[in-house]
Amino acid sequence: MINKFFFIIFFCFYISVFAEEIVLKYGDKINGKIIAKNDKYLLLDVKGASIIYYTFEIESVDGKDVKKIPNTYFLEHILKSKSYPNFVKADEFLNRGIAYYSKSEFDYAIGSLNQAIRVKPDYFEAYLYRGLCYAGKKSFNEAISDYNKAVELNPKNEEVYFTRGLSYASLGDLNNALSNYNKAIELNPKYVQAYLNRAFVKINKGSIEEALLDIDKVIEINSNIPTAYYIRGLANFKKANITQAILNYSKAIELDPNYFEAYANRGFAYAYSILEKSKQDPYSPSIYINVGISYLDEETFKKAISDCNKAIELNPQYIDGYLIRAKVYFLANDFDKAWQDVYKIEELGGKVDLDFLKELKRLSKR
Q1: Which long-range contacts (CB under 8 A, 24 or more apart) does 238-247 make?
Q2: Which of 64, 173, 196, 319 is such that its CA lies 20 to 30 A from the CA of 12?
């Protein structure tokens, strides 16, 4: 009884004395009272709510390093108490996780979301956001596992099907990606992003006309979405409708002047339009032929290079921009500049498709 009485007095004394400003690493500030601390956790009273933070989440406590705040011996007893889940609010952990996620601090976010799920094991939003964090870390299988749990908890939420589709697509599993986008659209027939992603998957599966129908639906819902025209450009280019593809990419750029992917792809479309047999499959290895200066339309070539340069100017890390420019130089027989872009791709950690590289080596005799 004496020990318990001492604990209560010490507990009340401790939280009444230490009112601190806690700065978290994602930039948020909290005014709270320190209840207890050990090397791993800090337990705070924030407006009557007991909240635990990992010490690695905390930038400072009243301007001091958190390691300089003395530990208290009783935190382990609180953490082991059966009542612990009853006084820590899962929503606080979720909100913290979302804040870290918004800053791309995925590890910190996962730590907070783990706590949310510990307190509330059936917390749909925590599984959804933890899946998003794993996807942000490119741990797509872990993301899908969390999305599966989220679907189990809430099978009528279109967002979780869409995000699960994104992870399947990132793994190259286009069939599962497509089925998830289908489900998202079934639940929300005006889900624009799901239509866009479904169209992109359909292009990759060779279902061009179906992809164009999805883009038509997007434009019917909202005619000012640059991505819709960009993907329409991809579809028309795949069909070898080069003039139409250029118009589509131009519309995307009109709506978003910083759309670097649209510039790069329009540049390649300009370059491809130089070929005499422009109705052949633009993705076929057979396009990598020695076009020759006699076939070169200088004005069109300048447009192609200008667009590629603009794409790289907007995003110097855009690997596909260098690859497309390399192919444009190749079509103009400027092999030295094509090789410069190939070296830049390798410097950035990218890969050059083998068909193109084989023809570049053959014709440049390198």
Answers
A1: 238/203, 238/208, 238/281, 238/282, 238/283, 239/208, 240/278, 240/279, 240/280, 240/281, 240/282, 242/269, 242/272, 242/273, 242/278, 242/282, 243/273, 245/269, 246/270, 246/273
A2: 64
Give, for 29, the enclosing helix (H) or strand (E): strand 29-37
Whole-number CA gyration radius for the chain:
28
Domains and CATH numbers, the chain: 1-88 (2.30.30.100), 262-366 (1.25.40)
Give the tens place of pLDDT for each residue, 110-155: 988 998 998 899 999 999 999 999 999 999 999 999 999 999 999 9
Distance (Å, rounded) from C-alpha 245 to C-alpha 16?
68
- Cα separation, 319 vs 339, whole angstroms: 14
Q: How far apart (Å, rounded) are the C-alpha atoms in residues 162 and 175?
A: 13
Question: Which secondary structure element, helix H or strand E, spans residue 42, and what is its range?
Answer: strand 41-46
Tokens for 220, please give them.
């019917």
Six-digit token string for 362: 């053959």
Distance (Å, whole) CA 187 – CA 169: 20
Residue whose C-alpha is closest to residue 273's, from 230, 237, 312:
237
Q: With beta carbons less than 8 A apart as the criterion, state whether 262 and 230 touch.
A: yes
C-alpha neighbours within 13 Å on the C-beta side of residue 177: 22
Report whether 160 contacts 176 (CB < 8 A): no
Task: Supply 312's token pair.
Answer: 């790289």
192-249 tens-digit pLDDT: 999 999 999 999 999 999 999 999 999 999 999 999 999 999 999 999 899 999 999 9
